[in-house]
Design brief:
CATH superfamily: tt1808, chain A
Structural class: alpha+beta
Shape: globular
Strand content: 25-35%
CATH architecture: Alpha-Beta Complex
Number of strands: 14
Number of helices: 4
Order of helices and strands: HEEHEEEEEEEHEEEEEH
CATH topology: tt1808, chain A
Strand order of the largest sheet: 3-6-9-10-11-12
CATH class: Alpha Beta
Distance between the termini: 27 Å
Radius of gyration: 16 Å
Number of domains: 1
Amino acid sequence: MHALRKEDRYTYSDYCSWDDGERWELIDGVAYAMSPAPTWMHQGILVELSGQIRNFLKGKPCKVFVAPFDVRLNADAGDDTVVQPDVVVICDRAKICGTGCVGAPDMVMEILSPSTSAHDRVLKLNLYQRSGIREYWIVDPESRTVSVNILDNGRYYVRGYAESDAVPVHVLDGCTIILSDVFEE
């Protein structure tokens, strides 16, 4: 994934004016084109992850959303960062607005693809850490693993899980994701 727009810096206002049929993300004012339609495997993982979380959240105040869903991480400052994570969990309903979230959600999940792997593992990991997102999951369909990044004193620490594991969701006390169901084909 690489920057494709020609200007040096963009804002959320610029982003909203683009009507080119493409999906974009802005990170610190730099525009990145989103990958084309995801694979069936990516979609299956997305549906299962969000479904397990949605089932857990019934009757609770937190909400789960899936892409496309704009997450504006610095709307109160430069408003030059908007991402579309695969899965987002938000517990502060005041952050939910028309097409997304204003501020840091409690949790995000990114499902890797060959074209986004480095972007999600480095650029987005650093962005999410800096933005105060309390939990960031990196789901790797190829290796059938999940890296769970938990924010502690402004830094992520990581725990790895394999497809046979049941993974606790730290921001949702009592919620556990069954990875054998997530990676089921």
